[in-house]
Amino acid sequence: MGARLGQVSIPGGGDWADVWFAWVGDHARDVERFSREFLSDEELSRLQTYRSPSAAERYVLTRSLVRIVLGAHLGETPRNVRVSRTETGKPVILGGDHVHFNVSHSGELILLALCGTRPVGVDVERRRDVFRVEKLVDRWLTESERREMAAHTERGAGASDTFLRLWSLKEARLKALGVGISGAARAPLHTVDAMSLDYLLETLPGRPEDQSYVGALAFA
């Protein structure tokens, strides 16, 4: 399951992350088998709480991609990889301080980033019209982010598209730090290296013709 999208490096730096991807629709028939073969007992229990079949399907495939890739990297059976969460909800590998990972999904796409040197964060957003985008900008973006958004829209970029690009960069930074959006105001986002993944996402193999994505990768 899944395929390696590429190796992404910080411009001018030595840190890099492997980025993997999977399309939900490609594995719709594998959900039951993946649940049995790859999910932990805790993940199977959580799966029972999902009321939406599509959400449950995305959960199984997301956790399976994480376990398959981490298992191959660590030389362990995927189901036996010990994945936990920090107090702020960031997934981590127990006893795996030398391996950092992060995962994101939107629409039909799942992204996984794996780094051996620094905490990493990844975010992907399906391009779409964002409802009440002005209110989201006022509530969640910093003053500098609002200025950047204004500069892009003044040059003719769409408000929804610009917001999603800035949002993906912000989310990736927060996830690298292990901080939720509620802690964004206090988070030292300026210390986090981040870059767009748009150039990779635009050429994703198997991408449905009616879908387009933006995304970002960050290193803390």
Unreliable sequence segments = none
Shape: globular
Q: Give the helix level as a range of percent.
A: 25-40%
Strand-residue fraction?
15-25%
Major sheet strand order: 1-2-6-5
Give the N-to-C terminal Cα separation: 28 Å
Give the count of helical stretches: 7
Instruction: Indicate the multimeric state.
Output: single chain
Mean pLDDT over all positions = 89
Q: What can be said about the biggest beta sheet?
A: 4 strands, antiparallel
Q: Report the order of strands and helices.
A: EEHHHEEEEEHHHEHE
Specify Rg, calculated over alpha carbons.
17 Å
Task: Give a count of the beta strands, DSSP E runs of length 2 or more.
Answer: 9
Structural class given helices, strands, pairing?
alpha+beta
Description:
This protein has 220 residues and is of the alpha+beta class. The chain is built from 7 helices and 9 strands. The protein has a 4-stranded antiparallel β-sheet with strand order 1-2-6-5, covered by helices on one side. Helix 1 (31-38) crosses helix 3 (53-74) and helix 5 (143-154) runs antiparallel to helix 6 (159-177). The radius of gyration is 17 Å and the shape is globular. The model has no long low-confidence stretch (mean pLDDT 89).
List descriptors.
four-stranded antiparallel β-sheet; alpha+beta; 7 helices; 220 residues; three-stranded antiparallel β-sheet
Topology of this structure?
Layout: E1 3-9, E2 16-23, H1 31-38, H2 41-47, H3 53-74, E3 83-85, E4 91-93, E5 100-106, E6 109-115, E7 120-126, H4 133-140, H5 143-154, H6 159-177, E8 193-196, H7 198-201, E9 213-219
Antiparallel strand pairs: 1-2, 2-6, 3-4, 5-6, 7-9, 8-9
Helix pairs in contact: 1-3, 5-6
